[in-house]
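Researcher: Structure for this, please.
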Amino acid sequence: MIYSFKNKGLKELFQTGKTKRIDQMMHKRILRRLDALAAATKPEDMNIPGFDYHGLQGHIPKRYTVHINGPWCITFEWGDGPENVNYEQYH
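Model: Predicted structure, token format:
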């Protein structure tokens, strides 16, 4: 279960399956990762081939990322589950 989103377009895409706030070409890849994130019981559950899961350095609380395409990633924190889920270019 995803507890909160930072990005309104990402939340809309997850809840409705569509949004105009994020490039439509990315929707399928993003939804695959969000579905996996919603089912995860710990951050390491996102260590799926092709997701390029890793922790980000220098963030408190700790943030994790999974790759979407090019510089675009989904980042998140972990409390009781995924929180502050964001779609961003963090580089």
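Researcher: Any notable elements?
Model: Helices lie at 8-16, 27-39. Strands lie at 54-55, 63-69, 72-78, 82-88.
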